[in-house]
Design brief:
10 strands; alpha/beta; single chain; four-stranded antiparallel beta sheet
């Protein structure tokens, strides 16, 4: 189960003078039930990977297997449309996906588009809006009257209304204040605990350390490192060379190592550092 990319390459505007390679021979697996982070500098190919995960793009070469559906260069939309119900994609600045006249209608749109009755879709919408912290007093309001953080929650509720097995998040907290960011990350953590597989693209290494159990590092369209965050972040020089860095507590611990302190393994979370200090 889960998702597997096998020898995947992707070229934008393939066959034209403007062709541009985004991915080159990438193989990776998103395990069912995992919390996987995909990280990389701008232009590394991580956003292209996200769009391949739910069939918005099909590979130029190689294959993407989503549960029992195989996506190849010859796949057509009608063959893979159902994948978008199984794999929900939350774009960066997801509030730009909102378009309906009321909050409730916007969240109910997706289920209705897949054949669910309006009454059932509305019931699902109410449940998911409550899940993301949108008060019922806002349900009949125009989503465009809400704050930026509220709009993003509405957009996420719209994806959750499809009841996906996998939730793919492209920089989901971009532009939010610290409180809003913390609340959203707590929501994603709970969804993961409830059984949803999470795929997170982020530039915040502290979030990778705190939440992910697997990380893939991309650079210039290639997969250059992978593994558990606790191991990947030990290679500070490498992470700096790919312009990502490491969690703040890891960097602090590394400075202490240079001053003579010894760690069995550099901590990647504050709790780990506290345990070391308290002995």
């Amino acid at each position: 189960m889960g998702i597997t990319l096998e020898n995947v390459s992707y070229i934008y505007q393939n066959g034209t003078p403007f062709a541009s390679s985004a991915l080159s021979d990438v193989s990776l697996t998103i395990e069912d039930g995992s919390y996987t982070a995909v990280i990389g500098h701008t232009g590394s190919g991580k956003s292209t990977i996200l769009q391949l995960l739910n069939g918005l793009l099909v590979p130029t070469e190689g294959s993407v297997k989503v549960f029992n559906t195989l996506i190849t260069p010859t796949s057509v939309n009608k063959e893979i449309r159902q994948i978008r119900k199984q794999v929900g994609l939350v774009f960066q600045f997801a509030e730009n996906q909102i378009f309906e006249e009321t909050v409730l209608k916007d969240v109910a749109f997706g289920p209705q588009n897949f054949g669910i009755s309006s009454e059932e879709a509305e019931a699902i919408a109410r449940e998911k809006l409550a899940m993301v912290g949108i008060d019922s007093s806002l349900f009949e309001r125009s989503p465009f009257e809400l704050s930026g953080g509220q709009m993003r929650r509405v957009a996420i509720a719209g994806i959750l209304a499809m009841e996906p097995s996998i939730l793919v998040l492209d920089e989901p907290t971009a532009g939010l204040d610290p409180v809003g960011r913390k609340e959203l990350m707590a929501l994603f953590k709970k969804l993961h605990q409830d059984g949803i597989t999470i795929v997170l693209v982020t530039h915040l290494m502290d979030d990778v350390a705190e939440f992910a159990d697997q990380v893939y590092v991309m650079e210039k369209g290639k997969l250059v490192k992978s593994g558990k965050p606790s191991l990947v972040f030990q290679d500070i020089e490498f992470m700096e060379n790919v312009q990502l860095g490491v969690p703040r507590i890891t960097r602090f611990a590394y400075k202490l190592v240079k001053r003579g302190l010894s760690f069995k393994q550099l901590p990647i979370r504050i709790e780990e550092f506290k345990e070391f200090i308290n002995g």
